[in-house]
Amino acid sequence: FLTRHERKIFDDLKSPHLKYWVPFVWFGNLASKARKEGRIRDSVDLQTMLNEMNKYRSWCSLLFGYDWVGIPLVYTQVVTLAVYTFFFACLIGRQFLDTDQGYQGHDLDLYIPIFTLLQFFFYAGWLKV
């Protein structure tokens, strides 16, 4: 949460990248000031708070790093090719037997492969997401 004054300072700060680190700097300064004023009684408590804040800041930095590096196009192309190849193989491999041939245990023949279609919709939808 920011006050209007803090929001103005945050917006006026010029940075070519994300400014996720600014509140962490503010927190560190306020925590040090609170220690000097006696609001935080023990340096161990201050150190624990700053360690937790640094851990959270490093997680934000890691998340920023994931956003910074894009997934190479080759990976998406390989996954797309693998999904469509899998379903092409399913279309051939999951066809039902001809009931006129009289195979034992294959009395029911479905004209629409329901589960293969469901699987295709789930995988293709997942791929698009």
How much is the average pLDDT?
A: 84
Number of β-strand runs? 0
Specify the helix fraction band: 55-70%
Low-confidence stretches: none
Helix count from the secondary structure assignment = 5
What pattern of helices and strands is seen along the backbone?
HHHHH
Q: What is the alpha-carbon Rg in Å?
A: 29 Å
Could you describe the 3D structure shown?
With 129 residues, the protein is mainly α. 67% of the residues lie in helices and 0% in strands. It folds into two domains: 4-68, no CATH class; 73-128, no CATH class. The protein is built from five helices and no strands. Helix 2 (22-36) packs antiparallel against helix 3 (43-68) and helix 4 (73-93) runs antiparallel to helix 5 (114-128). The mean pLDDT is 84.
Sum up the structure in keywords.
single chain; 129 residues; mainly alpha; 2 domains; elongated; ion transport; transmembrane; cell membrane
SSE layout and pairings?
Elements: H1 4-12, H2 22-36, H3 43-68, H4 73-93, H5 114-128
Helix pairs in contact: 2-3, 4-5
Quick overview:
The protein is mainly alpha-helical. It contains five helices and no strands. Helix 2 packs antiparallel against helix 3 and helix 4 (73-93) runs antiparallel to helix 5 (114-128).
